[in-house]
TrEMBL record, chains A, B, C, D, E, F:
Homohexamer; trimer of dimers. This is Cyclic pyranopterin monophosphate synthase. Coiled coil: none annotated. The active site is at residue 151. GO terms for biological process: Mo-molybdopterin cofactor biosynthetic process. Keywords: Lyase, Molybdenum cofactor biosynthesis. The keyword Repeat does not apply. Pathway: Cofactor biosynthesis; molybdopterin biosynthesis. Catalyzes the conversion of (8S)-3',8-cyclo-7,8-dihydroguanosine 5'-triphosphate to cyclic pyranopterin monophosphate (cPMP).
């Protein structure tokens, strides 16, 4: 059952939104009181040093990962191409995500770790001094790095999948320090 | 004397890659025989009608998904913003993925389905008549749509995660018809 | 009175759409039957030679236009900078317009005409052989050329305005030949 | 009569620019004393909170506007797609306008108002703390939002036109507060 | 002595262009008869398989080149990063060069050769089947690859220089086969 | 266990990099200790007023340069198109150069000088107040301006070449004031 259809039938049945639900709605800061999406004005927030880390895992056949490791010994390492793609993607984030602020990023890195015979973990760290955070830049970096690994290996393993794209750490904003453990082997 | 060659001979002497492994390495078509990455020349492949479908799921707290559903009743629907982001991303794919071919895309769509109280499934379909396929465009569309859902809801649920980014179907190339079942609730 | 507000109150009053109205809705080809926006699949349309012309006018104080004319005598002509901006914008159209197809444009030109002492007319012509037309490329070219004239002269005439952005001619598609007269002095 | 031709004949007749005219020329800050265009160095201007608002109107057949309103009741609202396009365009402004400064925008919103049975008004507001203003970002936002409305409705109303693209308000720079009334029904 | 100044004084002295010179002017196909720049309409040219090769050299201190070579043994090879940058730049060419046609590139590669203790040669090859050639894509690829080498080594050798950016070969268009020898050590 | 580390230890065993060479390697700030490329974190550097100047020369047949000069008398000056391309390229630098920081540029100019009957010199100056410098923006500006001259004249002189792309001056960072003489006729 598709959501579009669901919503339409729900509209027919019930055009009222309860007061409690309305309150929840206003928590989504990307919408104003009338419900219009916007790039939130962050002009009143202070400039602080902000950092975000995100991770993703790419799952593949053991033969595929063995091939990537072998390539790491030669030129044209898969992870090196994916690393460059991930770092460059941090600077394209506000071209991709509609309500994201453009930020003068100060640092970005992308690292790769082999968790087990069929799993690669990717972690990105992004830094800035700005009025808003860089979670989306870190999340975009790991996503694009993972997509690049997929692109480079899809000729031998079309069934690869990307999972666990999530925020690991965020610091520097008024919402406090968020941190959680990375996935491990 | 080419630098690539220099490295390869040194690798042969020192880093020990077995002949069998070498064969696997050459299956990664994004690298040439010397190991250099490249945008593969597809000029000799025929122009055929090609299609690719990909999916991703976004997992979140039930309260978050309830909020998104409520928003669907008003203006500024989260899924509509994410849909636009995913469609636009199909056209930025070769700006993001280093060895991807630029293609004159002929159609793209992104759909959303609520699987259960905390899971949203996103599916993208992309069409082209070209010498190479559109898997990366479909994979990029679901990734960017999922990142946009994350961006719009992160103020209330920073722990959301994106999983199951994978190819569902691919047709039109010489590698044949690839198809698998979508994730279901 | 804002539309957002209007729509919401209308929703409360009237969630039914009449059959006649439904028929009209489906004429907007950028939406599918369920109402979801999409990049329409044009794969079944034939490749034909297509052309579109669009125009815009920029209105300004006579002193401003006199200054632009004087500059035309020296280096750094305002119209030359705007012409380059308009031509380059034809190639960015699908980066800007969410449901627009990317096209391998074959030709583009932007011209300027002084209609009277305070009015400049801009005309753009774009050519392609493709499955869909180039109206948006021509419309975007005149808009960006006009915005560039505004940018370069805003320090002396902040009240300038851009009007009459419209399609003048379109040929090559199944919808037939559309043509109308340009604005004249 | 085209301006290019006019300028050339004028060059033949009259290569002198009067002293009074010369003074006017130098007011165009995008050119230096030798007449070369440039991105003006704003390094000596103070960082201040700046805001700009701009508007545009889209004129169409009443049937077209009725169709847009009907769509507002379902998914895939024309104005919502145009809103996203306008907001994203604020961040592409310096990619489009040749001598425009890139700015770390802090807020952007785009709103739609139905003025009468055939006229839609679009208004954009952009905020930044920077050494130069955001007029071009606001002007570009309303232009791209209007072009998107055109794109989505052109299959039913090719003759739509965009008018009244102009600055409504600007504050925060040394040139003082500029403000004027929006167009009304 | 700057050209701007020179041109202006020449304008004052001599506004006539001789008939012979006029003929030469029209050879620049990027301008029409009235002198306006344009993206030339290539719609009447046949689609043919086209190829272009270009080269550039980067000159540096022997210590710098030794460092690059050492890095080639580890991760993060300077040439690999530059190779990716060069390949990606082929797809950005029409974003950078004002009158360049956007083309659906079919193949691109960038190679590095150490000519002597202080000189690196870069060569790019680009392929397409289109109505116009890919010289600019190959020239842009070597330029951006060379700029990336500069960027990565500038902290130890600010005086590096890039030379000999030139076309080596071009085939597939009506202007015939152009080929010349690469620079050698 | 990180993959980078794995490679490094293997290198230590097999590929023999001497301790002295290792020291040199770490001078390339775009790599971290493990050898991974990154966008260096400049968050701890102070914001200072920074400037960079770069130059390039374009060599061509005397007939080609004569044609460019003649065009300078009419509309559509080759140098004016190249100037706009160079200025716009300063703002695309971090889209092109993988490890380059995005910067809110405050000023940019590109100038042209005819050195002799077959040589044009291009100079770019870029300004910013930021934590890192603008050498790459100035180097990219002269490269893209030179490529544009090549593009506009290649129909009459395919053998043109671009040389001497190099930094002329850099000020404002902790590495001190770097300056050298431009090439002269």
């Amino acid at each position: 059952m598709w959501f579009c259809a669901g919503i339409v039938s729900q509209l027919t049945r019930n055009c009222g939104v309860s007061p409690a639900e309305r309150q929840t709605v206003t928590e989504l800061t990307h919408f104003d009181d009338s419900g219009a999406s916007r790039m939130v004005d962050v002009g009143d927030k202070p400039v602080t040093a902000r950092m975000a880390r995100a991770e993703a895992v790419v799952e593949m056949r053991p033969e595929t990962l063995a091939t990537i490791r072998d390539r790491g010994l030669a030129k044209g390492d898969v992870f090196e191409v994916a690393r460059i793609a991930g770092i460059m993607a941090t600077r394209r984030t506000s071209d991709l995500i509609p309500l994201c602020h453009p930020l003068p990023l100060e640092g970005a890195r992308v690292d790769f770790e082999i968790l087990d015979s069929q799993t690669v973990r990717i972690e990105a760290t992004v830094n800035v001094r700005a009025r808003t955070g860089v979670e989306m830049e870190a999340m975009t970096a790991v996503s694009v790095a993972a997509l690049t690994v997929y692109d480079m290996c899809k000729s031998i393993d079309r069934a690869m999948s990307i999972s666990g794209v999530r925020l690991l750490e965020k610091s520097g904003g008024k919402s406090g320090h968020f941190v959680r453990e990375p996935v491990s082997s």
